[in-house]
Write a structure and sequence with these properties.
With 285 residues, this protein is α+β, with helices and mostly antiparallel strands. Helix content is 32%, strand content 25%. The chain has 7 helices and 19 strands.
Length: 285
């Protein structure tokens, strides 16, 4: 069945969920573009991360789609927190990269992921400013605007291009230390562009060879993790453990570079961990 330029195959057990995730992400992305052009308000947030009324409007669009089509599923959203419990939980970041958005930079995204049990099953990440929609399902391929994507084939870590995310406040020293170690490993080819969801997609399509961050949250990585893995990459924390919790570090690579970059990243400390089942209320901005 065709849907605004994409094909959703009935043979995929999650085709319906993917279709809804794509529709929700696209509508939220269009709203973000409108608000970016017409104006938005900065809001106060307890943890001092950036929040706008655009985040909240995008979240309501996503929740409306999901509650209409899957009213019995659980939802875990960055601003609204947890709503309902269940074997299936939608994990939402209505505006990943709020600081970029607020400053007119194009690297921000709407991220929609579905967990079945503790495993990602559906992912849709939309970068509205760039018109790029990344998708994946547990049994399908990763795609960019409907076309299959793969991670880069690079095997020489000295030639790798890596995005290192800087967290602020208490995690800043960790980020600076991580940046230095990665930069020395890949001869200075380090970028810092923000938006974890966006950068995970860039690893998946081979624009980046890796992404690293000292402390992350489940909103940031659930959808992107699935997209990277279905594109042939690998995602773990710095110790090589699977990502399951807020507070873990994250290393996403093309697979070939994982051991070398894991060794380089391992010197950084890990943040406070919080499991999928725990309440989420903090944002990353």
């Amino acid at each position: 069945m065709s849907f605004t330029g994409l094909e959703f195959h009935g043979g995929d057990p999650y085709s319906d969920e993917l279709q809804v995730a794509v529709a929700a992400a696209r509508e939220a992305g269009v709203d973000l573009l409108h608000r970016s052009a017409s104006g938005f308000s900065l809001l106060d947030k307890a943890d001092r991360t950036t929040l706008t009324d655009a985040d909240l409007a995008s979240e309501q669009i996503l929740l409306s789609h999901l509650r209409c089509r899957f009213p019995h599923d659980g939802v875990l959203s960055e601003e609204a927190g947890r709503a309902a419990e269940g074997e299936r939980t939608w994990v939402l970041d209505p505006l990943d990269g709020t600081t970029n958005f607020s400053r007119g930079l194009p690297f921000f995204a709407v991220s929609v992921g579905l967990l079945v049990g503790s495993e990602p099953a559906v992912a849709a990440i939309y970068l509205p400013k760039l018109g790029e929609l990344f998708t994946a399902t547990r049994d399908g391929v990763a795609c960019l605007n409907g076309q299959p994507i793969r991670v880069s084939p690079l095997g020489d870590v000295a030639q790798a291009m890596v995005n290192v995310y800087f967290d602020r406040r208490n995690a800043l020293e960790q980020g600076l230390d991580l940046h230095r170690r990665i930069a020395l490993t890949c001869e200075g080819r380090v970028k810092t562009m923000g938006s974890t969801a966006s950068m995970l997609c860039y690893v998946a399509c081979g624009r980046l060879d890796a992404f690293a961050r000292s402390v992350t949250k489940i909103f940031d990585f659930v959808a992107g993790l699935l997209i990277v893995e279905r594109a042939g990459g690998r995602v773990t924390d710095f110790t090589g453990m699977p990502l399951r919790r807020t507070g873990q570090s994250i290393l996403a690579t093309n697979g070939h570079l994982h051991p070398a970059l894991q060794r380089a990243a391992r010197g950084g400390g890990l943040g406070h961990e919080q499991s999928f089942g725990d309440q989420e209320s903090e944002g990353t901005g």
